[in-house]
TrEMBL record:
A Pfam family matched in the record: Methyltransf_16
Record-given protein name: Methyltransferase-domain-containing protein
Xref: SUPFAM superfamilies: S-adenosyl-L-methionine-dependent methyltransferases (SSF53335)
Keywords for the protein's UniProt record, in alphabetical order: Methyltransferase, Transferase
Region forming the signal peptide: none
GO MF entries: methyltransferase activity
Taxonomic superkingdom: Eukaryota
Species of provenance: Aspergillus pseudoustus
Ranges annotated as spanning the membrane: none
Length: 322
């Protein structure tokens, strides 16, 4: 796929606001090959899935068609591909949800995980490393949770794990647990692309875990390698064991982890004691070796309270301080 179209498609499946998409210029869009690549990679249900909501597709295709029309200088030589026009007609005739319904509805987003700039061409780097989540990027808080969207801290941690040798070594071949997983973005990244041995995805909200369970299948993952479990911080961890051939052995095997991940967990001073208690529980009772947390520091005092409390029983390094 043309690099220009690949970038546009990656942003499109992440449902970037249409005015902010990296659209090719008009002369480039006139090319039949570019138009065909756009249709195949962004609007053809047979070759691109899961597609964004109809309303979003309509907004994006309207901009693309308008830009092509503005750049046509010779109608006999330049034209809009029939497949794009047919898709446009179909979208216009498809019933659309109300603005209120769209604001509350979850949709599938497809993220493209970054690769190291120094990565040589290989079977892993020639294809896009995608992750599918179920979320609503306009929802900040719903049903008492902020977990219905992937926040910037998770994306930054995903970039660190994907693009640095240190980050990749933290996960490859390791037993991973994610706390407060929300959409499960980080867990899917570890299980699908970073070669984690197994991954346990935890959150306190059953609805979020139902969405994650659905997306395990959407990402083509097996539940022998990635599982979900409810964990109310401060209470014992109660989750199913990973499948092994001997069920009796599974019951006797202790649950252990090598590394824990968390993103945007420190947003309220009231939850700091419960979070720290849970982290300490992991180190004391589950053989945890490392905990990596990514945070948007919204309140420096709250974050400092978290660091000071953790510092009483473990050593830590703060990366990216400003």
């Amino acid at each position: 796929m043309n690099n220009i179209v690949a970038l546009l498609a990656a942003q499109y499946f992440e449902q970037v606001d249409p005015p902010n998409l990296s659209l090719p210029d008009g002369p480039t869009l006139i090319s039949p090959a570019i138009q065909n690549a756009i249709f195949s990679s962004m609007f053809n249900e047979d070759t691109a899935s899961p597609l964004p909501p109809v309303s979003y597709q309509t907004r994006v295709l309207k901009i693309i068609i308008a830009r092509i029309e503005e750049s046509i200088s010779d109608p006999e030589e330049d034209e809009i591909l029939d497949s794009l026009l047919e898709k446009w007609t179909t979208l216009l005739s498809t019933p659309k949800s109300s603005a209120l319904e769209q604001a509350q509805k979850l949709t599938y987003l497809k993220y493209t995980a970054p690769s190291p700039a120094t990565t040589k061409v290989s079977s892993e780097s020639t294809g896009r490393r995608t992750i599918i989540t179920s979320e609503n990027r306009s929802l900040i808080l719903a049903s008492g949770t902020t977990g219905f969207r992937t926040w910037e801290a998770a994306l930054h941690l995903g970039t660190f794990l994907s693009t640095t040798s240190i980050g990749k070594s933290l996960v490859a071949g390791k037993r991973v647990i994610e706390l407060g997983a929300g959409t499960g973005f980080l867990s899917f990244l570890c299980a699908k692309h970073l070669r984690a041995d197994n991954t346990l995805v935890t959150d306190r909200d059953p609805t979020l875990l139902e969405q994650i369970d659905d997306c395990i299948g959407k990402n083509g993952l097996e539940k022998t390698r990635i599982r979900t479990g409810i964990w109310e911080w401060g209470l014992p961890l109660q989750v199913p064991s990973f499948a092994v051939e001997d069920e009796d052995v599974a019951k006797r095997e202790p649950i252990e982890f090598d590394i824990a991940l968390g993103a945007d967990l420190i947003y309220d001073a009231d939850i700091v004691p419960l979070l720290v208690s849970t982290i300490r529980n992991l180190f004391d009772n589950y053989s945890l070796k490392e905990f990596v947390i990514s945070a948007t520091v919204r309140n420096e005092d709250t974050f400092r309270t978290f660091l000071d409390t953790c510092g009483k029983f473990l050593s830590f390094t703060r990366v990216g301080s400003q």
